[in-house]
Amino acid sequence: MKTERELHALLASLTLSEKAGQMVQQGEEHLGGTGGEITGPLRHLRLEPGTTLEIGSVLGSTGAAHIRELQARHLDRSRHGIPLLFMADVIHGYRTILPVPLAQGCSFDPDLVREGARMAAAEAAAGGVQVNFSPMCDLVRDPRWGRVMETTGEDPWLNGLFAAAMTEGYQGGPGGSLRDPETLAACVKHFAAYGAAEGGRDYNTTDLSERTLRESYLPAYRRALDAGCAMVMTSFNVVDGLPATGNARLLRTILREEWGFDGVVISDWNAIGELVPHGVAETFREAARLAVLAGVDIDMMSPCYANHLAELVIAGEVPERLVDEAVLRILRLKNALGLFDDPFRQADPEREARVVFHPGHRALARKAAARSMVLLKNDGLLPFPPDGGIVAVVGPYAVERHILGGWSCLGEDADAASLPEALAERLGAHRVLAAAGCGIEGDDLDLAAVERVVSAADRVVLAVGEHPGMSGEAGSRAAIGLPGRQEALCRAVFALGKPCAVVLFNGRPLDLRSVADGAAALLEAWFPGTEGARAAADLLVGDASPRGRLTMGFPRSVGQVPIHYNHFNTGRPRTGGADDYFCSGYQDLPSDPLFPFGFGLSYTQFSYGDLRLDRPVLDPAGCLAVSVPVTNIGSRPGSELVQLYIRDLCGSVVRPVRELKGFQWVDLAPGETTEVTFAITEPMLRFHGADLRYASEPGRFLALVGSDSLHLQEKEFVLSQDRR
Ligand code: NOJ
């Protein structure tokens, strides 16, 4: 471990081009001797494959033996002996793949998410990775955007909880240390507001008011940083007219000055180079100048810093002080990770073989998948009774096993069971039939085999969804129904009249109108990871109970998006009365989603008693208790997520119709009742008022408690003016 003084001395010993090199991230093909094809933006580096470039960090390499070899070769050659940093995208697992982050959000279980992140870090760190480009906590309101799959949903506060939990999981916290070789440094992304891409089209412009940015989009990144997140990645998009990667107001004023962040800022892939097509820089040289002045410490995969940073300093266009500050932050991170003592962080093939894909990790992946799935409808078909009946699995996911989801690192489809295989493990192969009928995409529909297996079965599982490549980066879709001929397949199967459960494998909320009515049950399995099919089978046969709740509502139609539960009331809200014509709404559809934020069923039912407040007035220094009795009125044990929302009825600026402020899980046996109590305090009522100050305003509020964002009881209370 170096002291701060030693780090300064090391910095002082570097030449300008060595300093600039620390601020360059490239793939391993630039470490010399590995060959590799130079494509895309890399061509602009004017380098040949195998040319050695002065770089400080490497993107995307994995594997302990491989990374040891790269690091050793680099250190052999290096004059200053500063180890490389190896960074990768370990978004939902390294080799053992967890459900995609949107699914993990639906677990409403930050402890489980933290545990999953810890597992992913242990595997990836054993495989030589040191920095993880996660958590991604971009707020999302538009399911056309494929990257909704990578985030935890539409709620600013909840995204913050998960971003903090993932950060702690990766970094060994709370209270952990990056010197622990089972950790990864976390990098929160994409700063900022990447999820607000207009039209849901990836990389597209965003246009947000300062208030919306601060109120809704920024809080989750801030929570990750408060949890100790080591790095921040900039986003591709424009924020208030300036691309985030050249945006000094965002990266210096807000991030560093207001929030006090002193860690490393990295651009997204070629985002500095993209300042040119964005139209704020004429040349890569100018782009490099804008980015370094804005506060980007590391240039990921563009030629800008590699080719121009040193020359900009020599020309006096960039103060060397800024370069020194950036390099010092990078050296501090390398030091915090223990790289100056052990540049391999104990990654070795033997430890890697022991840790990676450990059976305990697979058990955790199965639990996480079961807890992430959301039961959207159940007319009593699920769970399947143990009556020996035959189950026909029909649809593309009767044969496909691409259920890991995008960004699945070293995960392999072959590690996952298909749904029929998983059901056969539970029920016996003789009780499970399978026929695809159609592909995920394409025009072919072949019903002969489908009709055969359905007629031989007692019940049907329609296993349908998207291909993993349809969500994730660049995975935008203008229409969000089931792709290909799958809707036609569903209709044909419903017409056969057998009780039918639809199981969905997908990375975004879909327009499910064409399947929701015909299905007797609807299980949203998302892309559930390595053990996802087994987890779905656990739920279908009733060995586990569904308990996931949506963290992103499902619109009725793409025409409703952007859609989010915490919208404003408007001056003309519809009330359901005769006067609704000139009120805000659609002529052809309701305004609310098909399945709202917070919604999800279990295998039992719960009833809520009357909501009570312990006092009508909240003193700003005090606390108000809101309670409700909850009873399991069904015949099976189950878990209910009791949700607290608050509405500020009148403020200096308009306030959302409801905002999630708390939740509690209760596990109840049949007939059991419990009292659930939430404490409401003044900080929960703060927002960015007319002057953008973050404070509460005295006045009337509603406390709303219930089972999802639309099924709520409410009680009014007052926040008093004075502290008593
Ligand atoms: C581009 C993606 O936007 C970002 O999320 C990812 O971390 C980087 N590429 C590195 O792979």
Write a structural description.
By secondary structure, the protein is of the alpha/beta class. It folds into three domains: 300 residues, Glycoside hydrolase, family 3, N-terminal domain (TIM Barrel), CATH 3.20.20; 174 residues, Glycoside hydrolase family 3 C-terminal domain (Rossmann fold); 114 residues, Immunoglobulin-like (Sandwich). The chain is 28% helix and 18% strand. The chain has 20 helices and 27 strands. The strands form six sheets. Strands 9-6-5-4-3-2-1-10 form an eight-stranded parallel β-sheet. Strands 11-16-15-14-12-13 form a six-stranded mixed β-sheet, sandwiched between helices. It has a five-stranded mixed β-sheet with strand order 19-27-26-21-22, with no helix packed on it. β12, α16 and β13 form a beta-alpha-beta unit. α6 packs parallel to α8. It is globular, with a radius of gyration of 26 Å. The structure holds 1-deoxynojirimycin (NOJ). The site of 1-deoxynojirimycin has 6 residues, from loops.
Coarse morphology: globular
CATH superfamily of the largest domain: Glycoside hydrolase, family 3, N-terminal domain
| Small-molecule components bound | 1-deoxynojirimycin
Strand content: 15-25%
How many domains? The number is 3
DSSP helix count? Answer: 20
Label the CATH architecture of the largest domain. Alpha-Beta Barrel
Overall strand count: 27
Strand order of the largest sheet: 9-6-5-4-3-2-1-10
Percent helix, as a range, is 25-40%
- The residue ranges in which pLDDT falls below 50 over 5 or more consecutive positions are none
Radius of gyration, in Å, reads 26 Å
Largest sheet: 8 strands, parallel
CATH-defined fold name of the largest domain: TIM Barrel
Structural class given helices, strands, pairing?
alpha/beta
Query: End-to-end distance, in Å?
Result: 51 Å
| Mean residue pLDDT | 96
Name of the CATH first level of the largest domain = Alpha Beta
